[in-house]
Amino acid sequence: MPTVAATHDSTATAALEKAAKYLCTMRCGLCPHVVEKYPCPTDCGMDTQVWECWVHFFRARAKDA
């Protein structure tokens, strides 16, 4: 049986992913580099999922808080 901490982490990760996908859709698919002038965490390519960049953006902001 998963621990409470593991369940919480899994739930928080799923919520963060859903929020990033929602925001990405609301911003017409623009990445945080365009919207927030956030530096790209990795090299972008044709297979880059923009919502993944939003997840990096939110995690970085959480560490700064």
Shape assignment:
globular
Tell me the number of helical segments per DSSP (H or I, 4 or more residues long).
3
The main sheet comes to: none
Q: Work out the count of structural domains.
A: 1
Q: What do these coordinates show?
A:
By secondary structure, this protein is mostly helical. It has one domain (4-64). It has three helices and no strands. The longest helix has 23 residues, at 4-26. The radius of gyration is 13 Å and the shape is globular.
Keywords:
single chain; 65 residues; mainly alpha; 66% helix; 0% strand
Concise summary:
The protein has one domain.
Topology:
Layout: H1 4-26, H2 32-36, H3 50-64
Helix pairs in contact: 1-3
